[in-house]
Model the fold of this input.
Amino acid sequence: MKMNKDSKKLLVVEDDPGLQKQLRWSFDNCEVIVASDRESALAQVRRHEPAVVTMDLGLPPDPDGASEGLATLQQILALTPDIKVIVLTGNQNRANALKAIDLGAYDFHQKPFDASVLNLIVDRAFYLHQLQRENRKLLQSCSASPISDFITGDPNMIKICQQIERVASSDVTVTLLGESGTGKEVLAKALHQLSNRKKKRLIAVNCAAIPETLLEAELFGYEKGAFTGAAKQTPGKIELAQEGTFFLDEVGDLPLSLQAKLLRFLQERVIERVGGREEIPMDVRIVCATHRDLRAMIGSGTFREDLYYRLCEISIPIPALRDRVGDAILLAHHFKNQFYAKEKRQSLNFSQDALDAIDSHHWPGNVREIENCIKRAVIMAEGPQITAEDLGLQPANVSSQPATLREARDKVECETLVKALARVDGNIARAAELLGVTRPTLYDLMNRHGLK
Ligand SMILES: Nc1ncnc2c1ncn2[C@@H]1O[C@H](COP(=O)(O)OP(=O)(O)OP(=O)(O)O)[C@@H](O)[C@H]1O
Done:
């Protein structure tokens, strides 16, 4: 990764004019900006947004201590959490150097400084900063989800989000099928938000959370005196969703007795309150969700087939998190950023073993599990890094860090050669033909991959 001098801005925070000059001369491959106290350092950070800072901890008014330096460090990091600060300390000052690292400094170097070593450290810091920036760009472009608060980069899931976008504006009944914690509720809300009904209400009822005896009154409402305790006329949840969207969550848990009543409502678009005679015409859009296998339930006689077809005018299967490529890490970054902003922590990143562990974990609880796991880790992590241990996850056996593109290509190339050679029983001319290369090229390739 080559960067030109102009793109490498280094801020030198140093109060001694002699050292300032010396440091300026030491870095001839970057643009050096200087500051001699906290105030000017912060002003320069705001103005130039340098990627790397070298900083003397002994700044005025505390040139012999480290209090001013550490305070400056904290403010710089609060302003730009990604900045790489290298702390310069006196020989006796190891404790303060470690304190600085604990606060989020990138590295430290002892005075009197060694220009060539310091240059190496600074270069590495620029490199890391650049990598992190590119990584973030990549993450942003990966998250191509058309539904703004639904994070995904998985091509299959993106297609599903696009389907949801498309059906949102129509009035068809949509049923979202998927494991618990896959985001069905988020998607149901998106269906409402993206529809023409968004100015009206979205009312949700979770069939699994309400006892069977109360569910009918909850859904359809009741008249005064309909049953003991029915003190006044009360509209049901469906009625409250008039002109809006009604979300029936865990519809697979709806008891058979109510399935008939729901079917009637879906067919005739009227409701009758419990104990009432009046038919109330309804204009609502219905969205359902369930983690149950409704077809299997039809087979076992616990779900009505006619209701199934009414509900699943369009059914959308939502894949489990483990089936979405790359999403676990994308979501981990998303939740980490969300929670760490709330916790007001300085700077917090995942260690390599944490990323490997996230990638290889099975996530049986899907997005909800990852959300809780990251929330806990942000609170538990002691330093500027979240480790696999903070996540409470098993470290991965093998690093799942992506191979370079070259490694990936090499692997596929080698496998293709082996397969082609096997298919033609080692006949070079025919293998070359099959692979669409000349014989000399094939020999070269075989040599490169050590194939005989
Ligand atoms: N792709 C996503 N991006 C960001 N947050 C998500 C995503 N998917 C789910 N979440 C969050 O994960 C949690 C669980 O999602 P949600 O409640 O929508 O799942 P569900 O499928 O309805 O689960 P259940 O069937 O158990 O009710 C919520 O806090 C939700 O905000």
In short: The chain has four domains: 5-141, 155-319, 323-391, 405-448. Residues 115-142 form the longest helix (28 residues). The longest strand covers residues 84-89.
